[in-house]
Amino acid sequence: MTRALAALYRLLYDGVLCRVPEPTAIALGQGALKLLPLDRLGAFRLEDPRLATTLGGVRLPNPLILAAQYYDPTILRRAMGLGFGAVTAKSITVNPRPGHPQPNLVRTRSAAGPGLVNCNGFQNPGLTAFRASLAGLAHRVPLIVSVAGESVQDYVTLVQALAPLGDLVEMNVSSPNTKLVYAWSERPQELRAVLETLGRLSPRPLSVKLSPDFAEVNERDIIPAALEAGVRMINYGNTRRIDEPRLSQRTGGLSGPDIFPATLENVRRTRKRFGDAVEIIATGGVDTPDKAVALLRAGARAVGYFTGFITRGPILARRILERLVREP
Ligand SMILES: Cc1cc2nc3c(=O)[nH]c(=O)nc-3n(C[C@H](O)[C@H](O)[C@H](O)COP(=O)(O)O)c2cc1C
User: Fold this and answer.
1) Is this prediction's pTM over 0.90?
2) How would you class 31 by CB atoms within 10 Å of its CB: exposed for 0-12, middle for 13-18, buried for 19 or more?
3) Which residues partner with 253 through β-bridges?
4) CB-neighbour burial class of residue 150 (10 A; exposed 0-12, middle 13-18, buried 19+)
5) How far away, in angstroms, is 53 Cα from ligand 1 center?
6) Does pLDDT of 89 surpass 70?
7) For ligand 1, is residue 210 a contact (CB within 6 Å)?
8) CA neighbor of 325 nearest in space, from 83, 144, 140, 88
9) At residue 328, does pLDDT exceed 70?
10) Is 28 helix (H, G, I), strand (E, B) or coil?
């Protein structure tokens, strides 16, 4: 059944979603997710107490996390019933942002498989509207709220307002398509001050989402600063910045299987260097059960993915969970 659904989705992705312009594919995909009550079907989930884990002391029914991209509450609600052990909402900024103009997302395909490059630019409704939209959302699994700011004050405002509505909070300092957020990794001393402040005031466990483009700074400055501030979770990580002439910004963040080798290396190195002091959420390039297993064996406590959800469909979570139950 799981295999048949996976094969069917491949036909849909290759035959339809890859053949229409990207904005149409997004509208079709998100429209279907909102309309179809897939979260009511047991086929996409696997509930087994052996899969449970914790992040920052919060219990997750399994170690799979939908990575940040969606802010629509209906989509978040659906995703919570599609096999994930936690769902991350899109990074929210203090004020609404229209995002970068079209084209801001293109498909890629390499020998490793299908991926995406985006320069979304944090298209989001802003703090006030997002907060109101979350009010009625039941947390069938933990919700991770993600915040993106350009100053200490931005992060303080965002965490104070949003943390109470989530179970965990993710601090995004790594999206490559807005200069000011990406530039945090170039100012590790200032970032240290943000971590210290948020470590003190966040009412929920915090994670910091790192850029794979800054491995040296991450491991020399940012992770040690996080640990000193009491922030023990890191999400390694975000997309990799590349030139992409088809995008309006001519540059964007690469996601999907081409970034998987770096994700695995980053997890291995971080685990070796920091031992059990950090809880690692490994994100970047997971689109098969084998890749999820490799990251968990390399020392990740949880595995996040977004592009695999698009290219392999909602059945990917169930495929990974079946594998984890078979080979813990
Ligand atoms: C269209 C798009 C929008 C994204 N928006 C966000 C975001 O708002 N915040 C964030 O932390 N990551 C964002 N990401 C990055 C993903 O959460 C994830 O870290 C990245 O895509 C690598 O994982 P993947 O290869 O499984 O997609 C976005 C990715 C894509 C493709």
Assistant:
1) yes
2) exposed
3) 118, 241
4) middle
5) 23
6) yes
7) no
8) 83
9) no
10) helix
Distance (angstroms) between ligand 1 centre and the Cα of 256 equals 10
Domains of the chain listed by start with CATH number: 2-326 (3.20.20.70)
Nearest atom in ligand 1 to the alpha carbon of residue 255 is: 25
Mean pLDDT computed over 233-256: 97
Structure tokens given for 115: 């991926």
Most informative mutation of 97, 108, 248, 255 for ligand 1 (most atoms within 8 A of CB):
255
Specify the DSSP class assigned to residue 219: I
Residue 325 to residue 7: CA distance in whole angstroms:
21
As annotated, the active-site residues are 175
In tens, the pLDDT along 125-146 reads: 999 999 999 999 999 999 999 9
**Ligand 1: centre distance to CA 2 (Å):** 26
Give the residue among 36, 170, 29 at the shortest CA–CA distance from 105: 29
Can you tell me the distance from the alpha carbon of 260 to that of 236, in angstroms, rounded to the nearest whole number?
A: 11
* Length reported for the chain: 328
316 lines ligand 1 (CB under 6 A): no
Does 311 contact ligand 1 (Cβ within 6 A)?
Answer: no
- Chain segment 20-67, per-residue pLDDT in tens: 999 999 999 999 999 999 999 999 999 999 999 999 999 999 999 999
